[in-house]
Amino acid sequence: MKTVKELSTEEKLRLICGKGRWHTEDLGGKLPNVMVADGPVGLRMERKTEDGKTEAIPAVAYPAIQLLANTWSTECARQMGKCLAEDCLERGVDILLAPGVNIKRDPLNGRNFEYFSEDPYLAGTMAESYIGGLQSHGVGVCIKHFCANNSEYDRLHQTSDVDERTLREIYYVPFEIACKAKPVSVMCSYNRVNGTYAAEYKKGFDVLRGDFGFDGAIFSDWDAVRDRTASAKAGLDIEMPFNEGNYEKLVADYRAGKLSDEELDACAERVLNLVARCKEMRKGKKASSTEKERRREAMRIASEGIVLLKNEGVLPLAEGQSVFVCGSFAKATPYMISGGGSACVRWEEENFDLPEKLAARGFAVDYEKAFLVNDTGAWQNARTAVLKAGRSDVNIVCVGTGVGIEYEDGDRKTLRLPAVQERAILDTAAQNPNTVVVLFAGSAIDVSAWVDRVKAVVYAGFTGEGGDEAVADILTGKVNPSGKLSETFPLSIEDVPAANTYKCAGVTRYQDGLDVGYRYYDTYEVPVAFPFGHGLSYASFAYSGLTAVREGDIVKVTFEVENTSGAAGKEVAQVYVRECAPLVYRPLKELKGYAKAAIGAGGRKKYCVELPMRAFAHWSAASDRWEVTEGDYEILVGASSADIRLRAKVTLPEIQL
What we know:
By secondary structure, the protein is of the alpha/beta class. The protein contains 16 helices and 29 strands. The strands form eight sheets. A six-stranded mixed beta sheet has the order 11-16-15-14-12-13, with helices on both faces. Helix 14 links the parallel strand 14 (394-400) and strand 15 (435-440). Helix 3 (74-91) packs across helix 4 (120-135) and helix 11 packs across helix 15 (467-476). The longest helix is centred in the middle third of the chain and has 22 residues, at 261-282. It is globular. The two termini are 40 Å apart.
């Protein structure tokens, strides 16, 4: 492997620009190159057909990151990373451009299906395990999009106007936690941060490398570089894809003394280190499972992330019941139950047929398409669907969004479902009170128009391959639901703080500050449709025996959960922290720990969550550091942010971290 000293100036300048769209520069064979590919939920690769057209290569489609987050399972995250690594190994991919760890500040963001959560701790810890699964099996990651990229609105130009404390406590945290897994690379975002393009955001890059210990290379997002010299001086190592105009200006700027040898060498050396690390990481690694096995794993992960939002006794379906299924999402094409853009995968197998899967489980099933995905007009065969719904024991309405509504480079226009879908729910529910709604969507939905008219709501999300089987298993009780929401479902978009902050053609002001998601709703007692962390089960759980004891630099939190039902299940227990008498503003409570465990019918499980001092700290704008204020802190343990079961207090001294 060449060193920086062995390269000419021209070679170093060329090295810090990409080669084509998907490779790093190999300097005419002097260096190995690194191949990158899109795909947080399945590889998105392209090939040329015989007639010169470009087509996507089929690949295993995994659950969307949003659905993975709803598992609240670091084991699922690690396993999905492992499966993706094996897909990459088989296709010659060195770095997967994933995962996205941006915060879900605004539920209308068109890419929320690609991101983990509105909560930075949950997003960071799930990403850390996902990265570990990939990189331990020989494939690097590129976490994205750094930073404050929380909307697709005019993403190439708008600036995220956000204060330092909010950056530190909300928007930086997922990257900080993810960096514990030693990702090989980070991708900058398109937007500006406080007026500076993210590709030139030296202050942020210094935080990554200094405070967070990131030792990899920083990529641009594709075509995000406006000034290659300015971005190199800031510490951006690789521009992607290769841009001849930018490269020629870079060379001219170097010759004019606008880029120093020290600055150029720093970027070039990090690229060389990236190449060496990727090739070393890959040595001896090969897939240990078949694609068929990985598709089954995708289905298992989906079944663990599906959230039972509401259930008034209609689920699970009882043996012998007749079932009517309506809605085009029940017999779906992949693009109806996927988000659009760089995360959109051409499925290896394209069958998605929920009625078929229910029939295979012994139910008498009838089906009507009833409406098209984004149709704003009348029903199709409306009268027939209404009659069939009324004649069945259970009516299941499958609704959602898909690539036409949730996609890269555009935000959703509304939080509500298309009018025809709401009409389908209301009209069939009027004939059959035992109505179940299954939501195939990648982000929160305004359910206020119909949720009180139905008996059950199942949030399936974007399930990937085998999602029809996963949903059927949940509906029939073969699998006990254990997913919980990684984002709040507000009553309406008007209740979302981000929707009421200043936005113009060039500026988005983060006036909501720390009050993102449940931090806002809980602090200001704003009612929601379904709270953060919420998810029902066919089992029931009782919490008891909370203790919170400081042991050196941690607070050890222990408690027990008992399954008080006759059904085995899994319970996600959540640990929140509240400062009792803060000296600076703190949201009412903040998630700082969680654990998921399987508990047999009638069984008990002891949970133990360790909270470091950082869990109690705030970012001091006065001192530019993390500080724990001397005083009392309440530990709150619950089944959701709104369902706190246990409370305890600890007293801590003043601590500078």
